[in-house]
Design goal:
The protein is mainly β and about 375 residues long. Helix content is about 10%, strand content about 50%. The strands form three sheets. It has a 14-stranded antiparallel barrel. The chain has a two-stranded antiparallel ribbon with strand order 4-5. A two-stranded antiparallel ribbon has the order 10-11.
Length: about 375
């Protein structure tokens, strides 16, 4: 979630913002075909990474609901998930992270109480047939409910405006993802998404008789996400890289903009591995991530997660170079019951500038 400069103190401003927006070494177990896949994945990542750095157009992106982090675990850890293995929710961060699912099926659903009474709903499901032999395939969605808003235009009357009733903007994204572990250390993955946003109709001209003409501000686009995850072989040290929201340029009426293209790098490790403590007993994951968004300066985030008996997790993080929030925190409870892993995750992010705190809640089922 890289909101930064897009924050406004009411939902109308928030929507105005959206409408104006823009090698590997030591993998000896990989065969010639797999090596080709590895090289191809790296070349793709380098291509899209170079594209993201070349197009430094701050505050020139739209469809910014795609920037809002979904999973509470990720949000609580400062959104540094690029190098961490995840459940089906990996499709919202680094799809390669779900290549080694611990279960055949992973399902996650949740909601976000966003600023200005905006609600985000999301869900994901991933299937790993034959214990991951053929990789993992998944589906995901996110839906935004902005509520009803007043619709007005400037008018030559006592009020200075004309009330045109209310309107209800909508936005959603649906996608399909695939991840594959190329070797015991290296995994790749990606998504294909359909993104849609409808800001309602807007008045384009007012006639002399008082009538007016309007046009519908509705757009859709296909976007792509790519990622990789590499385990170094030293304890649990791993690093990851991903590029998200790559698509063609869009246009509302006469102004063009891009999706919030973002490039992430991350590194993580369970520090208790240094003392050979069994992770089934307890673990302390430390993660650091660097991110380069299209519409905001570069940021460095840190996160930590302490888990006891693979059941109770305490999480915290901090996001540097962000002008509306920094501290993040959360908790998770997961338990195996009759072969089914059930879990609930919660995160809390305090905002500055008069905005209410953001809370996330999700339910996870894996079997």
């Amino acid at each position: 979630m890289k909101t930064g400069n897009i924050m406004k103190k009411n939902k109308s401003c928030h929507l105005d913002r959206m409408s104006s927006d823009p090698a590997l070494r030591g993998i000896n177990s990989v065969g010639m075909t797999s090596r080709g896949m590895v090289v191809l994945a790296i070349l793709l990542l380098q291509l899209f990474a170079a594209t993201s750095f070349a197009q430094q157009k701050l505050a020139q992106s739209g469809f910014d609901f795609l920037n809002v982090a979904t999973d509470p675990r990720a949000a609580a850890m400062g959104e540094v998930m690029t190098s961490l293995e995840m459940s089906s929710a990996a499709m919202f961060f680094n799809t390669a992270s779900m290549a080694r699912l611990q279960n055949d099926v992973s399902l996650s659903v949740g909601q976000i109480g966003w600023i200005a009474d905006i609600r985000h709903y999301y869900g994901s499901i991933a299937i790993s047939p034959a214990h991951g032999e053929y990789g993992a395939i998944g589906f995901n969605f996110r839906l935004v409910n902005y509520g009803s808003m007043d619709k007005t235009i400037i008018a030559n009357n006592a009020n200075g405006y004309l009330d045109l009733g209310t309107f209800s903007p909508t936005a959603y994204s649906v996608g399909i993802g695939y991840a594959k572990a190329i070797s015991d250390r290296f995994a790749v993955g990606g998504n294909v998404n359909y993104d849609f946003q409808d800001l309602g109709s807007s008045v384009t001209s007012v006639n002399t008789n008082g009538s007016y003409t309007s046009s519908r501000s509705k757009l859709s686009v296909i976007s792509f996400d790519f990622g990789m995850l590499y385990k170094t072989g030293f304890k649990s040290l791993a690093f990851g890289m991903d590029v998200r929201n790559f698509s063609r340029q869009l246009k509302y009426v006469s102004e063009s903009f891009d999706l919030p293209l973002i490039f992430n790098l991350g590194i993580s490790m369970n520090l208790l591995d240094m003392w050979n403590i069994d992770s089934r007993s307890q673990s302390l994951i430390i993660a650091v991530g660097a991110t380069h968004p299209r519409d905001y300066p570069e940021q460095v985030n840190i996160g930590a997660e302490y888990t006891f008996l693979q059941m109770i997790s305490l999480r915290g993080g901090y996001m540097f170079n962000n002008d509306v929030y920094g501290v993040t925190a959360g908790v998770g409870i997961h338990k195996d019951i009759a072969g089914v892993n059930l879990g609930i995750d919660y995160s809390w992010t305090p905002f500055t500038g008069g905005f209410s705190d953001v809370q996330r809640l999700s339910f996870v089922v894996a079997y």
